[in-house]
Amino acid sequence: TAADVARALSAPRRTLADFMALISPAAEAYLPQMAAEAERLTRQRFGNTIGFYVPLYLSNLCANDCTYCGFSMSNRLKRKTLNKEEIERECLAIKARGFDSVLLVTGEHEHKVGLAYFREVMPIIRRHFSTVGMEVQPLSQAEYAELKTLGLDAVMVYQETYHAPTYAR
């Protein structure tokens, strides 16, 4: 409800219920206030900084057929998942260029590039970088918690398209 959104916006510390209110349809009328609050919190937390990260493409395997994505399973391209030695070489090459933050990227293929794979490769990657983020298939809260113990610092979630008819395909 609108009251839930207003309460969430004024809360000093937000809960999961607040988050649900802020992404509900009732929050649409509050978008300007939400944008202002997001900017305030971002500046409070990070200051006026810009952070750079390098994407480390671990795999382009994907079990989905999204029309808007280059990793789509129907795209005819050579599929590749990096092994530990290849990951080590990529990490060294990225570090040699002066970067200290990486974003791990995969397609969505939980059986071949899922938690078991991440358990194997996170220690290798973590050794090289002070910040490790991830943009991969959706995982459970328990899986994210485990990855946090392995050194994951951030999760990036991107909406690949905002065009509803395209997204529906």
What tags apply to this protein structure?
alpha/beta, four-stranded parallel β-sheet, 4 strands, globular, iron-sulfur
Low-confidence stretches: none
Overall pLDDT, averaged? 89
* Number of distinct helices: 7
Tell me the CATH superfamily of the largest domain: Aldolase class I
The main sheet orders its strands as: 1-2-3-4
Overall geometric form: globular
Order of helices and strands: HHHEHEHEHEH
Distance between the termini: 30 Å
Q: Structural class of the secondary elements?
A: alpha/beta
The major sheet is characterized as: 4 strands, parallel
Query: How many DSSP-defined strands?
Result: 4
β-strand amount: 5-15%
Helix percent band: 40-55%
Query: Under CATH, the topology of the largest domain is which?
Result: TIM Barrel
User: What is the CATH architecture descriptor of the largest domain?
Assistant: Alpha-Beta Barrel
- Class of the largest domain, according to the CATH hierarchy? Alpha Beta
**Number of structural domains:** 2
What integer value in Å does the Rg equal?
19 Å
